[in-house]
Amino acid sequence: MSKYTVPGLSGKDGAKVARVLQERLSAYNDLHLTLKHIHWNVVGPNFIGVHEMIDPQVELVRGYADEVAERIATLGESPKGTPGAIEKNRTWDDYSVGRDTAQAHLAALDLVYDGVITDNRKAIEEVGDIDPITEDVLIGHTGQLEKFQWFVRAHLENASGALSHGKASTEKEAAAKAR
């Protein structure tokens, strides 16, 4: 536990919030690397639209990582932005799609966003009563991530509202169904 935290929080609560944020930092670092991987590996007729749609997402998610890291430091803890920290905190599998079509990547990315957004909502719940400042930061991030997921899903949705990858449970399965 750190020797200080923000006014109004106990050291124990500050450390708990920082732990939750460290998990989000690792998720954001992984997400921006995954998004860049997709940016580099997308092919097919919709290549340019998806290629150009992904970069603003990369930049915003990198910004989220920075904001979360700075909040961890503000709480008196040390943010860990290393590959080892990502691996240690990872509760998800590494992104599994290589060079593939826009539809395949977007279907897989939809599942990635499902995981990140679900985990963000859990983090919001966990910190909400302890630290409304951190809660507010995570709410803002989650709202934008949900918007990004909507952008992704708009490419995958048919006129009746069904997604091309259906109820796929893995990225590879989602990619295969969307091709």
Write a structural description.
- The chain is mainly alpha-helical.
- The chain has a single domain (11-178), classed as Ferritin, core subunit, four-helix bundle (Ferritin, Up-down Bundle), CATH 1.20.1260.
- Helices cover 70% and strands 2% of the residues.
- The chain contains six helices and two strands; from the N terminus they run H-E-H-H-E-H-H-H.
- GO terms for molecular function: DNA binding; ferric iron binding; oxidoreductase activity, acting on metal ions.
- It holds the Pfam family Ferritin.
- It is an enzyme of class 1 (oxidoreductase).
Sum this structure up briefly:
The chain is an all-alpha fold and 179 residues long.
CATH T-level fold name:
Ferritin
Q: Which residues form runs of ≥5 with pLDDT under 50?
A: none
Radius of gyration: 17 Å
CATH-wise, what's the superfamily? Answer: Ferritin, core subunit, four-helix bundle
Helix content: over 70%
Mean pLDDT, rounded to whole units? 96
- CATH top level is Mainly Alpha
Family: Belongs to the Dps family.
EC number: 1.16.-.-
GO molecular function, one term: oxidoreductase activity, acting on metal ions
Organism: Rhodococcus coprophilus
